[in-house]
Design goal:
By secondary structure, this protein is of the alpha+beta class. It contains 19 helices and 20 strands.
Length: 559
């Protein structure tokens, strides 16, 4: 027809669907020359006039399209052929016209021009809603939603709100830090030495330098170098990578915010975090109290404070403060906690804490004063031998923040690294490596400093009431997609599908024998008859017996 389904020209857009719904009633004169673009999401064709729905990034808008308005001349093909027959759900169109209100009170765009902007060759899943707005036949399979997030965002627009909130969390945190005069920086993702946390790294190889490199597990040691260099406060939002397990709260790559402020300690940092999170929650929700499942989480400070030993005493009923490694290993086995010989004293205490304490920490709670073996980068406690000045913030049973009074003694730091090397020699693949350059930076002198890390993904889970990290990541890590074995025409004919009905099954997105075997007979019969009619095929509908035969034969082949 001479119409390019993928035109190069820009299409002018001067309004959004949300803007129209919010302002049209009060400013009707401003909406007489509308130009808007988006996906075609529904159509109700009624002869020479039709209603349709267009969806842009802000929402949906009803369109009223008359044949003679978009085809003012003799040629009516744009309406009769293009709009009615060739366009489908999911296609991008641009429309121009003026706003009006229908007799039923629906704000609508009376279309005077229609332009095809992009043809979708794969049909979108059709999500149906009843008059009350309840969804059925929804695109709800998590495997498909996470793997095909582009479809999820299109047919489940409410999912966008999670990611809009995520962006607002980050921007409000950034505004808070900038308002205090702290500098946002960037540090290397590819690092010669993996450090800053106890975790297993991803390793790669740089060809030109012929050397191994690691994806960072933390940016801590580089940010501290900048404090050595003279900055009073630096922070970074960035991706971290840990070659570890995956579950509802862990993804191999995740977003962390780390901040370091000179001349502060972990007590100051607790007060800063309380102020920060209360302000962020209020900015997002208008209140510091948020709903998480059936719980109400109050981010108003001050938060409860418990030492690591006190928390284990309270929730596990045992005092581990004086236990050595052998006693802790025995205790773990008595508690049914799985341990191995690579675990030192610090990791054994951490296992007990994770099993017996974490789930009880629902309201924001600081766990403070960790055993020195658990934290190689924190300063020794000012008054409690064997402990370090560290806290973790737990909310709803999960850690979302970790902070220290930072270790700035280069001699002490070297000894801590050496202890980590001993653990690595025992087989602990999460032990830290020796970083000679970082030690050299400390030797030049680092002022007293407090550092903090906040997990952005987990904070977003809390503030959007999501229980899985995959819901707050646009593209979570997935297993390789299984290749779908598309049934050939010959295979479909073998199970009894007439050759002329094969296009019908393809249009219904039934590509495999397994899909046909799992189909519900009455639904497949009705869908096949409806699609044959929609495609205007001059062939007989299949009978119910035919359809049942396809399903039985396909199931037999799968067995």
């Amino acid at each position: 027809m001479g119409i390019n389904p993928y035109p190069a020209e820009a299409f002018p857009v001067n309004v959004s669907a949300a803007d129209i719904h919010q302002n049209y009633e009060n400013r009707k004169n401003d909406y007489k020359n509308i130009s808007i673009a988006g996906r075609l999401m529904s159509r109700r064709i009624m002869g020479s006039a039709s209603f349709a729905e267009l969806q842009d990034s802000s929402g949906r808008l009803q369109l009223y399209i008359r044949r003679d308005d978009i085809c003012p001349g003799e040629d009516k093909a744009l309406y009769n052929t293009v709009f009615k027959k060739l366009l489908g759900i999911g296609d991008f169109i641009g429309v121009k016209g003026y706003m009006f209100t229908t007799q039923t009170g629906e704000i609508s765009l009376h279309v005077t021009e229609l332009t095809v902007l992009s043809k979708a060759v794969k049909p979108l899943p059709v999500v149906k809603r009843d008059e009350e707005g309840n969804v059925y036949d929804g695109f709800t399979d998590p495997e498909l939603r996470y793997r095909q997030r582009y479809v999820d965002l299109t047919v489940n627009p409410e999912v966008k709100n999670v990611f809009i909130t995520r962006s607002r969390i980050i921007s409000s945190m950034r505004a808070y830090f900038d308002g205090n005069g702290w500098l946002e920086v960037e540090t290397p993702i590819l690092q010669a030495v993996h450090g800053g946390a106890a975790a297993r790294p991803f390793q790669t190889h740089h060809n030109t330098l012929d050397m191994p490199l690691f994806l960072r597990i933390a940016n801590e040691l580089y940010l501290k170098r900048l404090i050595v260099g003279g900055f009073d406060g630096v922070y970074e939002f960035g991706k971290m990578f840990r070659n570890e397990g995956m579950d509802r709260t862990h993804n191999p790559e995740f977003t962390s915010m780390e901040i370091y402020v000179a001349y502060k300690d972990y007590i100051w940092m607790m007060e800063m975090v309380e102020d920060l999170l209360e302000k962020v929650c209020t900015k997002i929700h208008g209140t510091a109290i948020v709903s998480v499942g059936d719980k109400k989480i109050d981010f108003t400070g001050p938060y409860r404070r418990l030492s690591m030993y006190e928390s284990i005493q309270e929730y596990a009923g045992v005092d581990v403060s004086e236990m050595d490694e052998a006693a802790l290993r025995t205790l773990c086995r008595e508690m049914g906690i799985e341990v191995d010989d690579t675990m030192g004293r610090g990791k054994l205490i951490d296992e007990i804490f994770g099993e017996k304490v974490e789930a009880h920490l629902i309201q924001p709670t600081y766990i403070t004063d960790y055993p020195i073996e658990m934290t190689p980068l924190a300063k020794k406690h000012r008054s409690k031998p064997g402990l370090v000045e560290r806290f973790e913030l737990f909310v709803n049973g999960k850690e979302i923040a970790n902070a220290y009074t930072e270790l700035n003694d280069p001699i002490d730091q070297r000894e801590r690294f050496e202890e980590q090397l001993k653990l690595a020699a025992r087989g602990d693949d999460e032990a830290m490596a020796m970083d000679e350059d970082f030690l050299r930076s400390l030797e030049y002198g680092m002022p007293p400093t407090s550092g903090l890390g906040i997990g952005i993904d987990r904070l977003t889970m809390l503030l959007t009431d999501n229980s899985t990290i995959q819901e707050v990541l646009f593209f979570p890590q997935m297993r390789p997609e299984k290749k779908v074995e598309v049934a050939s025409d010959a295979q479909l004919q073998e199970i009894g599908v007439r050759a002329e009905l094969i296009p019908v099954l393809r249009k219904l997105n039934l590509y495999t024998l397994q899909q046909i075997a799992e189909a519900e007979p009455n639904k497949l019969f009705n869908d096949s008859c409806g699609m044959r009619k929609k495609l205007k095929l001059s062939i007989d509908n299949p009978s119910k017996e035919e359809v049942a035969g396809w399903i039985a034969a396909a199931a037999g082949q799968q067995a």
